[in-house]
Amino acid sequence: MRRHLLSFLFPFLLLSLWTGERAGWAGTSDALSLAGSTQMPFKLGGDTYAVWSGGAFVFIQDRFSGAPLFQFFDRNGKQISQFTFSIPGASLINIYDNSISLGLDGSLAIVGTAYSDDSRGGLFVAWVSQDRQEQTIIRTSPFFPHAVTIASDGTIWVAGDDTKKRHEESDFSQFLIRRYDKKGKLLGSFIPWASLRTDDPPFPPTVHSVLLPLKDRVGWYSPGSHTYIEFSLDGSVIDRLKSAPHPKEDITYVAVCSDGSLFASTRTGASDGHQTGWGIFTLDRQRGEWSLISRNEKWGMLFGCDGTRLASATDLKTISWLAPAAK
Known about the structure:
Layout: E1 2-6, E2 32-39, E3 49-53, E4 56-61, E5 64-65, E6 69-73, E7 79-84, E8 92-94, E9 100-102, E10 108-115, E11 121-128, E12 134-139, E13 143-150, E14 156-162, E15 175-180, E16 186-192, E17 210-213, E18 217-222, E19 227-232, E20 237-242, E21 254-256, E22 262-268, E23 277-284, E24 289-294, E25 301-306, E26 309-313, E27 318-324
């Protein structure tokens, strides 16, 4: 495998804006119906993660290990390919939720942390070519990358913040979104922390956030700042909305469909930390308002959106495809 190691040499390696744009997008339906099901082709657990991205399920095993295994499945559950991800000199690689994205061209973006045998750590962004033969590793320390996506033009977008030692004050002038090309060149940084409404005490807006690739833009869903922002491919803000009305730590699954419909899952009826149900928020872009579709199941999650169908699960055996109900 040919690798581009940019500022990441191991062992040192590890260490808006409410516009008329909305009129071009479809509003979301107020109901979702089951449009089919598929046997879940993977087993979810604490050291695994799955997402629908770039037209396939991307499943990671051993995501807190020295050699995370990536497997790719089509919508029918058939395995397409697999490969093992590694970084020279790293004995431990940690890949978190919302930290992988499959591009439309089949390339893969990964963000996370890596450690050597002597416990020296580093923060990274990785790009892997479609044939898995070429890899770019970018050291980002002290910038901690929380979420990543590959935009429709092939650029890599990362949401993160500069890590601070305990008792250090946060730098609210720092930019939270970065944009790279596949060779690792930084193309731009934008959205200063100070421009967002955040909680007191400060809660980094990039924690639990999600980056979403749309056909001609990129969306950033930030529970910590109660904000959803869409950018043009050059990084200009073209739309800015409130996120769905949920506790910031409650949202983990957000999906955008090919027609621009936006969905966010949430727990419902939670009491004393125990979930008694779930629902899916949908966004009406024309009004800028969210509505909640309550589901009958006690638990559920979203993997992403295939065209206009949501890939979801309400148990650990079945993928349920949800589609807007006919009016």
